[in-house]
């Protein structure tokens, strides 16, 4: 009889998530599709990985200390929840700035339950300094990187500059965001796929940390691996040239992905595909009802995109595709939309 490991804290249970082969909804595919169940991390999303690494790396560098430092971050949900978990276990005060238009009640309630202070920010009116943004960005209400996150990030920057012992995690530009996925998620996928012919990895782009980090790991192991980034059709940053750079507010991981281009030598991405909201929602429902996977809408987008990309590549028998289930469905019960 197998027994679970004994842990010092719940943080020891971050990572080492299972990789599951989809069976029922991929019956029309000639290739196999595997999904890494990141919603089985302690706080319910793959963001546990980056929260733990960003905070522990800051500790190693002497930037923060439990009981003395305050951590701040801008968030629309999963990163805030993950950081709330890590801060609670390690003994940090955590202040989260969240746009009131895009923050679901479920997510806010979870953050507060862990003890985080959540400050809702009114972003209904774009501040003058962001008035140059294209209308497609100004009107965005759901996607990571939309203008709704600009003002919360600016507040984090101000607080760090003005108050002693305040550290802003900067998830959107932190190399530890990418490193978490390069040295944990990507390495786990390699080990879990030993003996199988992994041809393609596909994942949605939020900060870009997941797809960038996993790509770095997989390209070291598989010379012919293809990596496809997925993004909402309504807000195409990587594929649509809509990237906006505001120093210390938007520049970061996504910017590096854009600058590298796709399909170029040493590029982390081979292509970028856009997913419609309805496609993501329908696939998320199928994952639940046909595969028993209680995952969120971005998981639906990932599976839809992974299958579509595999078909476009002409993958066949014996070929394998991997994607991730970023979070659980319970934080989308009142409103379902494709967000990253």
How is this fold's topology laid out?
Elements: E1 19-21, E2 32-37, H1 47-60, E3 70-74, H2 78-90, E4 93-99, H3 105-113, E5 117-121, H4 135-138, H5 150-162, E6 166-168, H6 175-192, E7 197-204, H7 209-221, E8 226-232, H8 253-260, E9 271-275, H9 277-291, H10 297-313, E10 319-325
Parallel strand pairs: 2-10, 3-4, 3-6, 4-5, 7-8, 7-10, 8-9
Antiparallel strand pairs: 1-2
Helix pairs in contact: 1-2, 1-6, 2-3, 6-7, 9-10
Describe the model.
With 340 residues, this protein is α/β, with parallel strands linked by helices. It folds into two domains: 10-41 and 179-332, Rossmann fold, CATH 3.40.50.1100; 47-168, Rossmann fold (3-Layer(aba) Sandwich), CATH 3.40.50. The protein has helices spanning 47-60, 78-90, 105-113, 135-138, 150-162, 175-192, 209-221, 253-260, 277-291, 297-313, and strands at residues 19-21, 32-37, 70-74, 93-99, 117-121, 166-168, 197-204, 226-232, 271-275, 319-325. Strand 7, helix 7 (209-221) and strand 8 (226-232) form a beta-alpha-beta unit. It is globular. The termini are far apart. The model has no long low-confidence stretch (mean pLDDT 88).
Mean pLDDT: 88
Number of H- or I-type helical stretches: 10
Q: How much of the residues is beta strand, in percent?
A: 15-25%
How far apart, in Å, are the first and last alpha carbons?
39 Å
Reported by name, the CATH topology of the largest domain is: Rossmann fold
CATH C-level category of the largest domain? Alpha Beta
Form type: globular
Largest sheet: 6 strands, mixed
Helix content: 25-40%
Please identify the structural class as seen in this structure.
Answer: alpha/beta
Can you list the strand order of the major beta sheet? 1-2-10-7-8-9
Low-confidence stretches: none
> How many DSSP E strands?
10
Order of helices and strands: EEHEHEHEHHEHEHEHEHHE
How many distinct domains? 2
Radius of gyration: 19 Å
CATH architecture of the largest domain: 3-Layer(aba) Sandwich
């Amino acid at each position: 009889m197998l027994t679970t490991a004994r842990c010092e804290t719940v943080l020891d249970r971050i990572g080492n998530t299972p990789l599951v082969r989809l069976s029922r909804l991929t019956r029309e595919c000639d290739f196999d599709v595997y999904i890494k169940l990141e919603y089985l991390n302690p706080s319910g999303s793959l963001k546990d990985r980056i929260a733990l690494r960003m905070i522990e790396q800051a500790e190693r560098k002497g930037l923060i200390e439990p009981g003395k430092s305050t951590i701040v971050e801008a968030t629309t949900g999963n990163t805030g929840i993950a950081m709330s978990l890590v801060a609670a276990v390690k003994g940090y005060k955590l202040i989260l700035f969240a746009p009131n238009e895009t923050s679901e009640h479920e997510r806010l309630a979870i953050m507060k339950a862990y003890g985080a202070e959540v400050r809702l920010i009114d972003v209904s009116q774009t501040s003058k300094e962001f008035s140059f943004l294209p209308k497609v960005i100004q009107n965005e209400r759901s996607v990571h990187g939309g203008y709704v996150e600009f003002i919360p990030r600016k507040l984090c920057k101000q607080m760090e500059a003005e108050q002693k012992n305040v550290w802003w995690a900067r998830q959107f530009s932190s190399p530890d965001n990418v490193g978490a996925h390069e040295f944990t998620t990507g390495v786990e996928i390699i080990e879990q796929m030993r003996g199988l012919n992994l041809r393609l990895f596909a994942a949605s782009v939020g900060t870009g940390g997941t797809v960038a980090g996993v790509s770095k790991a997989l390209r070291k192991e598989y010379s012919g691996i293809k990596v496809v980034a997925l993004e909402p059709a309504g807000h195409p940053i990587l594929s649509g040239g809509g990237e906006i750079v505001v120093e210390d507010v938007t520049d970061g991981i996504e910017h590096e992905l854009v600058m590298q281009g796709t399909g170029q030598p040493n590029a982390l991405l081979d292509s970028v595909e856009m997913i419609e909201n309805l496609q993501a929602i329908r696939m998320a429902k199928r994952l639940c009802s046909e595969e028993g996977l209680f995952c969120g809408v971005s998981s639906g987008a990932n599976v839809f995109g992974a299958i579509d990309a595999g078909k476009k590549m002409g993958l066949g028998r014996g070929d394998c595709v991997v994607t991730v289930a970023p979070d659980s469905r319970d934080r989308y019960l009142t409103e379902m939309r494709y967000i990253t």
